[in-house]
Amino acid sequence: MADLQAREPLIFELSRPGRGAVTQYPPRVAGSADIPAHLRRAASPALPEVSELQVVRHFTRLSQMNFSIDTHFYPLGSCTMKYNPKACNTFAMLPEFLGRHPLGPEPQGFMACMYELQEMLQEITGMQAVSLTPMAGAQGEFAGVAMIRAYHRAHNDLGRTEIIVPQAAHGTNPATAAMCGCTVKEIPCDANGDVDVDALKAAVGPATAGIMLTNPSTLGVFEHKITEVARIVHEAGGLLYYDGANLNAILGKVRPGDMGFDVIHMNLHKTFSTPHGGGGPGSGAVGVGARLRPFLPLPIVGKEGARFRWLTERDLPQSIGRLSGFMGNAGVNLRAYVYMRLLGREGMVRVAEFAALNANYLMKRLQAAGFEAAYPTRRASHEFIITLKRENKLYQITAMDVAKRLLDYGFHAPTTYFPLLVPECLLIEPTETETKEELDHFCDAMIAIRREMEQEPEKLSSAPHTMPVRRLDDVRAAKQLDLAWKPAA
Amino acid sequence: MAFIPHTPDDIARMLAAIGVQSIDDLFDEIPRELRAGTLGVPTALGEMELGRLMTERAAGDGRPLNFIGAGAYEHHIPAPVWAITTRGEFYSAYTPYQAEASQGTLQLIYEYQSMMCALTGMEVSNASLYDGASALAEACLMAVRANRAANSRRILVPRTVNPTYAQVAQSIAGNQGIVFEPVDFDRAAGRTLLAALEPYSGQDITALVVQQPNFFGCLEEVDRLTDWAHRNNILVIAVVNPISLALLKAPGEWGAPQAGIHGADIVCGEGQPLGVPLSAGGPYFGFMTTRMQYVRQMPGRIVGRTVDVDGRPGFSLTLQAREQHIRRSKATSNICTNQGLLVTAATIYMSLLGAAGLERVAAASMQRTADLTAALSRIAGIRPAFSAPRFHESVLILDRPVAPVLGALSRRGIFGGLDLTDRYPELGNALLICATETKMAADIDAYAGALADIMNPSRAAA
Q1: Chain B interface includes A71 (CB < 8 A)
Q2: CA A115 → CA A206, B106, B280, B322, distances in Å?
Q3: N or C: which end of chain A has fewer CB within 10 A?
Q4: Range of lowest pLDDT (A175-179, A320-324, B257-261, B297-301)
Q5: Contact A246, A80 (CB under 8 A)
């Protein structure tokens, strides 16, 4: 069972006037006398007044109310919750890296790491050039689609504003297309989870800017007809965008550049194991083929002789521009660099192999235990989908119920209700860093939950029972908005 | 093999359970002709060997004495901040979708939202955006949705706003037909020229961006700018430094109340000063707060306090109908992953410093910059550029090109500031400097001594 910290008051409730962590204050100086009265703050902000120990204890206790990779198996599909090696953090937090101002002279040691990271990502994806600037997957997607638009504009092909997105796509794909000022055309998938080629043929035309595709798809399967899809879109004058959020299953096995893609974004916080941090920071590096190279977002690390330097608008006048105030999530990129050097060439291929081994093993075991795979005739990639539509009919049990009950058994829930087109689904991604024993324990829990479904379904519908809270009232949360603590008037 | 725990026996039993002969069989759906050959990346290093390489590279970059600000600021970071932030339970958790197993992160974000509302004087905050520059881009997109009185998608961006922010806003929001128009500044004072706004009075404008303190470190006349904008049905987007808000008027108080409108409409900025290391430019975090009436137009994740089925208080992500996984192409933004870990650091930082500590940090930074400006202005060939009151940055004008001077300082281990020549050619040889509370009197003396020596070598020798 999970054993989390049960409850912790708000930090504001611990506050007492006149208390403070004074060791952390700089010496008192006059300093602020020059501020004119009309620009000065009238009353101090209502921040907590607490001691250093209170702060340490409060936030340590809050941390103990979380599941995390370091404490629990976290088979969250599409999120690649693999071990985040401690070395990545330790080396990225060396004081010289941490203390470096981004606008100072170009730091050669740091930039050597970034340059090599660009080169490695280029090689892994089969692309011609890489920019590390985008700060998360969604920004990488933005950069990709913005480059596609810039490419068509540069060719005076102004009518190409339509982005084709398969139904199974992640929600960021259509949202990104809209942010780039494009319209979205959704096309269906066939019964095997592949893109419906006839629908694609009917969808492409002179308005096609490009297609956004994930492969292996969010359905957890490799797109069989990828070469044909690429040909159809290219012949129609569109470009191919590869959503490389999750490369775990193809590392060293197949390269998007070789599949014909023009642009890819990679979530370094998934495949390359930088931490998820409870919701970021991520890093969404983009790679491009020759056609889109002039449009890459800035800055990029360039090399002249033995010296590294930041490439700017002078080097890439057609760039889509800057997406961050400085150089993206530099410290995240540094962690990804450390991870990749620890893995090396041989380790990267093993990532794909063992991610696939764990996923296929877990899928087979769950099938043997009576669970239904959404695509039983297909190989799992790094993840797979279980559908509970049968259990839903028989026992009125939902995917959410199973997810919540798993928490009681000490496992983070898989992704639920995504992709949207599979009813009552659990998207399960074990990753390569889990042992066979851990997978077996998870199966044991699923088998036990299956027994509960049949014998005492209320145990599921009222789960979780052992967490700091039970199911929350989301309707109330959205209707009676309480988004900030306020001091008593 | 790195981080893979499988024994030969495990592999054999797992393959047997799957019913395949080899791991390679698991990839039989990938067409043969697409299979990759051996990757051209280096072979693996052990942690010890790589540690040596990283330590050498870091050492080569050194630890210069830094006087650059320009949007990223060197402040003291209390030891508890990163000791707790890097706890695995925060560091290696995902976005808190499973609320019951993520109450720690969710409560922390709620506390963060509360603190940001208190600092900025607004009613609601999101859980963060990527950084200050992209937060401004999102604020501009939000203003278009929020300002129902305007149809033009024209946004006024004074030239005293960080020029990189303006570039990023253009890159991100430009694709949606938003037009950014620059507004000139007062060459003597160093703040936005109110007269330059007059031609826009009565026009259809979506928003005015006001950065306080502005890129030059000068204080803008925020009340007058806000009142002008609101008189013309223009929303005010405030870009602020959170540390400065310990002393400066909260954006929620800007301007005179009129027709129920008071203060800036959207507040955003760079959260890095709140406990986040410089780290060569990132990861930082962007913050955004607004009034309740605009909450549904705000991008990014938001945490709400509610109750569970037993009536116990708890926290969950709320108002998700704004977001991409529900609304897809109609979402307020495509953002999902944001900068959660940096928000964790900032929340711990603000808890440790409190209002009293932040006031001291802000006042000490102001004082150090005033001291530095005075010390450097005593050197022949250097004068301050602007007369407006400053926060913790200032612009100096040199009698010669800035770049060689900065180069000479850098060779002495001093990062002397940011050369503004390319960004503001009309200012001549302009240098933007910054000193925070981390700079002691001896540091300022060291900088002044080195600069005097570089500017006037014969005099220094004599």
Answers
A1: yes
A2: 38, 37, 14, 38
A3: C
A4: B257-261
A5: yes
Contact B372, B67 (CB under 8 A): yes
Residue B219 and residue A253: Cβ atoms within 8 Å? no
Any B CB within 8 A of A365 CB? yes
**pLDDT value for B461:** 47
The residue that leads in pLDDT, A214 or B281, is B281
Q: What is the CATH number of domain B79-347?
A: 3.40.640.10
A-chain CB neighbours of B178 within 8 Å are none
Task: Give me A97's structure tokens.
Answer: 């890296």
Do A430 and A372 meet the contact criterion of CB atoms below 8 Å apart? no
Count CB neighbours of B201 within 10 A: 11
The closest alpha carbon to A274, from B98, B42, B283, B105, belongs to B283
Residues B282, A327: C-beta atoms closer than 8 Å: yes
A residues 383-422 near B, CB within 8 Å?
403-404, 407, 412-413, 418
Tokens of A452: 């509960």
Partner-chain contact A41 B118, CB within 8 Å: no
**Token pair recorded at residue A482:** 């309480």
- The pLDDT, as a whole number, for residue A421 is 87
| CATH number for the domain formed by residue range(s) B65-74+355-461 | 3.90.1150.10
Minimal Cβ distance to B334: which of A29, A142, A471: A142
Name residue A393's amino acid: K
Long-range interactions of A258-261: CB distance < 8 A, separation 24+: A258/A126, A258/B34, A258/B36, A259/A215, A259/A226, A259/A227, A259/A230, A259/B34, A260/A226, A260/A227, A260/A230, A260/A231, A260/A234, A261/A213, A261/A230, A261/A289
Q: Is B289 on the interface with A (CB under 8 A)?
A: no
Domains of chain B, residue spans: 65-74+355-461, 79-347
Query: Among positive and negative, which fits the CA dihedral A95, A98, A104, A105?
Result: positive
For residue A417, the tally of other CB atoms under 10 A from its CB is 16
What is the C-alpha separation between A190 and B54, in angstroms, rounded?
49
- Let me know if B140 is exposed, middle or buried by CB neighbors in 10 A (0-12, 13-18, 19+): buried
Which residue, B172, B140, B154, B176, is CA-closest to A178? B176
Q: Which domains does chain A have, with CATH numbers?
A: 11-63 (no CATH), 87-342 (3.40.640.10), 352-474 (3.90.1150.10)
pLDDT bracket for residue B462 (50, 70, 90): very low
The DSSP-derived string for A28-81 is P---GGGS-GGGB-SS--------HHHHHHHHHHHHTTB--TTTSB--BTTT--
* Rounded-to-10 torsion of CA B94, B98, B100, B105: 30
CB burial of residue B157 (10 Å; 0-12, 13-18, 19+): buried
Question: pLDDT at residue A2 above 60?
Answer: no
pLDDT 10s digits, A278-292: 999 999 999 999 999
pLDDT tens per residue, range B395-405 = 999 999 999 99
| A149–chain B Cβ distance below 8 A for any pair | yes
Residue whose C-alpha is closest to residue B434's, from B242, B216, B188, B190: B216
pLDDT digits (tens, 9 = 90+) for A66-102: 999 999 999 999 999 999 999 999 999 999 999 999 9
